[in-house]
Each structure stands twice: as structure tokens, then as C-alpha cells.
Amino acid sequence: MKLRRRETVSLQLVTALGAAALLFPFLWMISASLQTLQEVEAFPPIWIPEVPQWTNYVEAVVNYNIGRALLNSAIVTTVSVVGQLIVCSLGAYAFSRLRFPGRDAIFLLFLATMMIPHYVTIIPLYTMVWSAGLIDTYTALIFPGLFSPFGTFLLRQFFNQIPISLDEATLIDGGNHWHIYLYVIMPLSRAGLGALGIFSFLGIWNTLFWPVLVINSKELFTLPLALAMAQGQFITLIHIQMAGSVIACVPVIVVFLMLQKQFISSIALSGMKQ
Amino acid sequence: MRSRQAQVGQAANELAAGKRPRMSGIARKEAIAGYIAISPWLLGFLIFQLAPILAAFYISSTEWRILSAPEFIGVRNFDKLLFKDDLFWQSIKVTVIYVIFRVPVSAVLSLALALLMNQQLAGRRLFRTIYYLPAVIPLVAVSMMWIWIFNPEYGVLNSFIRLFGVEGPQWIHSSRWALPALIIMSLWQVGTGMVIFLAGLQGIPAHLYEAATIDGANTWQRFLKVTLPMLSPVVLFALVMNVIGSFQIFTQAYIMTAGGPGNATLFLVLYIYRNAFEWFHMGYASALAWVLFVVVLVISLAMLRSSEHWVHYEGRIGGA
């Protein structure tokens, strides 16, 4: 569709204004994170601090224990995402490619449970973790996330689109089913694996609900949990809170900017982020 | 793009048409590989999905304070929540209001953005990045940022309103404005919808627009007669997903308002959380969680049902 010049200019303007409006809260947060408490509470609001208070970031890191929280989030997210990709892709491979007695029954059972929301299962899950004595452990943070019903389903749909003749060719060439998985299915499903990886990365990195339940001690706080707890504790120290929020945003933004194309296609593919 | 339900349905059909495996030496090898490949997933499924669902079913019919053994009370939890619990109805009211306002408004906004991004504008990719950015950052950080924006005294929003000589509302500190504030804030993250719609728009074949133009259709007519019908399956999908997601709002209310003031933002999931993990009424909380499931399921099914009247599927005779 070709647009006339005047229309193009006005659309361009609308787009730019909209983008400015969306960026506004970000800039506000960054600006507040570099101000003194006095500047933060001034009216009219100050946008450029007189002297940027970089020490706010130091204070945030010290008060909120953010270094440790970053490390915890990184460990939990990495192990969960990698584990999930392995577990789900193996499961999806079995569902999509390997015939064995009971497979279809399992798959039907799986489909039947897929619509049931997380919040139904979270109470039994919590009591399970609690009675196993796993409250306050990495295991509690990581294990339930290793297995993702949605991920298995997504990958199975993906694998189903790969021609079965490639499997047959591998078998004729003397390969076995693990060769098919490693050298045919996985390399041809990079887009699907990437989509699932990004989807779980966002979900696990950002989640608050589960860590709130299973973690009590500061040493195991994930980043969202550390921020949430600090919010209650240092409620008036707005500039420090904003510094902490900026720190929490940076890793996701960096990953997002690096993998932007994959992010966009993963959302378009899975459409599942809330 | 098809909805998840449609995919599930198709998968089920594929299964029904599936063949029985024969067991030869090769088949046995394949079956063994199958069992090995499936076992980590199957273990996870049994422990973290199936068992909890069955347990949740049982727990919802008990009174269970976690430290003592659960006591079977039949449907009394459901009886209590339906007929004796004002807070339950408050949480339903708050959640439904949130969904009713948030879902359509964000759908319209993200569609508008997607249409903009689909034009040949300068810096399109940069703008797409900016629009999508708010949807990826942690909700906890988003919430903290907006607490500060909504701050009645020093917040940027009321400072802006003050420029017009009016004093802005108390936002999240007022029982009247807290829910609208959370709805406004949720609109900041329209990027997800935009990306889904944009993918849909780019899938519409150009020849349809060309044919419409030759037939003398103007921009508005092309939008109504080509874009909307062709996009309607994606719209349905995005709406259902957004409804499911919006019903489960928790983090914002937990961080920003703690359900207040005066239970004005006591969303259903927050109420489940309180019952289970603050008051340790595990049985009652499970019953609430099942209600959440049923409400979301009924609404999703109703939307899918209604879609027969407004969703256009290519290659189907009749339709819109």
C-alpha cells in the first residue's frame, strides 16, 4: 500500500510520539535512579540531576544484595532453560517420531491436562516441596521448571513439520534413532528451540510467584524476589529502588537487543507471553 | 496462526487416525529409544503435572491447614465461596473489571500499532523495538517504576496533571483509582499483542489488496473488507490468550497495592495466594483455583463459539 506524502508524515509523527510516550517511564526511572532523594521529591520534577548519583547503584547492590540475586537468577534461569530444552525436545521427539506402546494414551492424557492453569497445581506442588524438605533450595527453584507442558507441545508441532524421509535416510545410512535426534531433528528445529528458549528465559527470569513461595533466606533470593522484598523494606528510598529496578532490567534488555529477531519470532510463534 | 485449542484438537485427530505399532526387531529398537527419550519428560509430567492436578482435586474437598492432616468436607469449600464469602465475590468483581477493560483496549491499541508498523515508515525497526521493550522487562521492576509514576505527591503523572492547575487523583492509594491505575499501567505493555498482529498482517497476501484497489475500494474499505477478515483468526487467538493471561494477574497487585486499598485490587489469584500461603487454608485455596480454571475455560469456550460468527477462515465456504 502506497501512502501519500502528507499521510506518511503524519503517521511518522504519531509513531514517534507513541514511542516517546512509551519510553517516558523508562527515562523517568533512569533519571530518578541518578538523583538525590531531595531531587527526586522536588516539584516541578527534575529530569537532569545536578550531579549524577552513581552511588545509588552501589547502595542498591549493597542494600538489596543484588549481586547475589543476579547470580542466583543467572544460575536458576540457565539451568532451567537448558534443562527444559533437553527434556522437552527429547519428549517431543518421542511423541513426534518414535512409535512405542502407550505413546498415544500418554499424549491424550497430556493434552487433557494442558488447559489447567498453573495456579491449580501450585498448591500441591508447594506442599510437595515443603514435605520433601526442599524449601529454600536451588532444587525447589529449578526442578518444577525443567518440565514444560507447553514447550513439549510446541516442539512436537515443530518436529512434525520435518519430513520423515530424512529419518529414513539416516536409518538407511546406518544411523540409529539418537543420530536422527541429534543430527536431523535438532539442527532443523533451531527456530523452534530458540522460540522455546526465549519464552522460558523470559518466564523464569521474571517470575515472582514461585520464588516467593519456596525461598525464605536472602542468600537464595532471585532478582525479582530481592526487588520485591526491598520494596517493602526501603519503601521511602525511591532513588535506590529505581537504581535496583534499572539493574534488574539491564540483563533482559541486553539479551533482547542481541536476539531481537528471535524474540519477535518467538512471540509470534508461541504468542504466549502474558 | 492457529489457536492452541485448534492445535490440540488437530493433534487429537492425528492420534485417532494413528496406526497400531507392529513389533519386529526394528520396531523394538524404536520402542526402546522411545521409552528412553520420553522418560525424563514423563517423570516430570507425572510428578509436576498429573499428580498435582489429582491432588488439587482432592485437596479442594478438604479442610487442610497444612500442619494437621486434611479433613474431608465434600463440597463445603465451594458452598462457602459461592454463598458465604464476600471477599471471593469482590475478587471476582475486581478481576472481571480488569479483564473487561484491559483486553479490548489493549487489543485496539496493539492493532493500531501493528498497522502503523506495517507501513513503510522510516526507522520502523527501531520503533518496533521501542514498542516491544516494555513487554520484556521484569514485572517487578515495571511495578516499582509505576508505583513511583503514580505517586500522588511527587509522581510524574500528577506533576503533569498539575500543569493544568488540577490536582490528580491518589491513584494506587485510592480505592476508587487503584484499579484504573493498574489497567492504565497494563496498557504500557501492548508490545506483545503488536508483534502477534504484525505477524498476522504480514501474512495477508498483497494480491487481495491489489484486487480491492482495482475494484475501487478506498483505504478504509480495504481495512474493513480485507485486513479485518484476514486478520480475524489472529485476533481471536490474541484475545483468548490475553483473557487467559489477564485473569491471572498477580505480581502488580502483590507489589503495588497488596490488594488494597479496601480490597479494591484483590484479584482472584492474589486471593488464592492469601488463602493458601498467608492463612494456610489449602483446601479453600484449591477450590478457588478450580473456580479460576472453570471461569477461564467457560469464557475461552464462549469466545471460540462466538468466533464462528466473526472469524473468517480462508478456504472455508460461507464464513464472514
In short:
Chain B: It comes from Caldilineaceae bacterium SB0661_bin_32. The complex is a heterodimer of chains A (274) and B (320). Chain A is mostly helical and 274 residues long.
Any chance you could write out the topology, listing elements then pairs?
The complex is a heterodimer of chains A (about 270) and B (about 325).
Chain A: H1 5-33, H2 37-40, H3 55-63, H4 66-97, H5 103-113, H6 118-131, H7 138-146, H8 149-160, H9 164-172, H10 177-188, H11 190-206, H12 209-214, H13 223-233, H14 238-258, H15 260-270
Chain B: H1 4-16, H2 25-59, E1 62-63, E2 71-72, H3 76-83, H4 86-117, H5 124-132, H6 139-149, H7 156-162, H8 178-187, H9 191-202, H10 206-214, H11 219-247, H12 251-257, H13 268-278, H14 282-310
Antiparallel strand pairs in B: 1-2
Helix pairs in contact in B: 2-14, 4-8, 4-9, 4-11, 4-13, 6-12, 9-11, 11-14, 13-14
What does this entry look like structurally?
The complex is a heterodimer of chains A (274) and B (320). Chain A is 76% helix and 0% strand. The model of chain A has no long low-confidence stretch (mean pLDDT 86). By secondary structure, chain A is mainly α. In chain A, helix 4 runs antiparallel to helix 13. The radius of gyration of chain A is 24 Å and the shape is globular. Chain A has one domain (55-270): Orthogonal Bundle (MetI-like fold), CATH 1.10.3720.10. Chain B is an all-alpha fold and 320 residues long. Chain B has 2 domains: 1-59, no CATH class; 78-310, MetI-like (MetI-like fold). In chain B, 69% of the residues lie in helices and 1% in strands. Chain B is built from 14 helices and 2 strands. Chain B has a two-stranded antiparallel sheet. In chain B, helix 2 (25-59) packs across helix 14 (282-310), helix 4 (86-117) runs antiparallel to helix 11 (219-247) and helix 13 (268-278) packs antiparallel against helix 14 (282-310). Chain B starts with a helix and ends in a 10-residue tail after the last helix. In chain B, 40% of the residues are buried. Chains A and B meet through helix 1, helix 4, helix 5, helix 6 and helix 7 of A and helix 1, helix 2, helix 4, helix 5 and helix 6 of B. Chain B: InterPro entries: ABC_transporter_permease, MetI-like, MetI-like_sf. Chain B: This is Sugar ABC transporter permease. Chain B: It is a multi-pass membrane protein. Chain B: Its main location: membrane. Chain B: The chain crosses the membrane at residues 32-59, 96-117, 129-149, 177-201, 222-247, 253-273, 285-304. Chain A: It is a multi-pass membrane protein.
